[in-house]
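Field reference: sequence -> structure
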Amino acid sequence: MKPIAAICAFVALASTLTGCNPPAGNHDADVKAVQDTEVQWQQDFTSKDAAKIASYYTDDAIFIECGSPAVNGKAAIQKELSGMVTDPALAVKFHSTTVDVAKSGDIAYTTGPYTIDMTDPATKQVMHDHGTYVTVYRKQADGSWKAAVDTVISEVPPPAPPPPAPAKNAKNK
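Structure field:
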């Protein structure tokens, strides 16, 4: 009976250890999978299909950009994208310079530069923005990676405020 107990103990210990530590080699495969996801996402921006672009987000994703309130949820992000993709001047480019996956294998992040060209609704002129993005990914049950938090930080200074209106004096009343 002792050999059976020893074998059971060994199997239980081995299962616990391998269950807590991802197998060697998964980190590099996960990094590659995240990189591949971003390359495809970048390419899919050219389709100007809001649903396709939004498919890279988790259902509870958050998108944050300077000067705007956070957009919460894939449906809201898709709605936001629907307005953007109708712009004929829209051109989005980004690529990661950093990709890392947590030891747990379920969370990853990327950072890198981005550029975006789009029509300014106020001036009707094409504006060019560039900066840095940070995306936090969550691994899905099917092994795919989806953006849970996505933020862009513009390096373009905001436009100067308009000059103040001339002060009215008592005679002009």
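Note: The mean pLDDT is 86.
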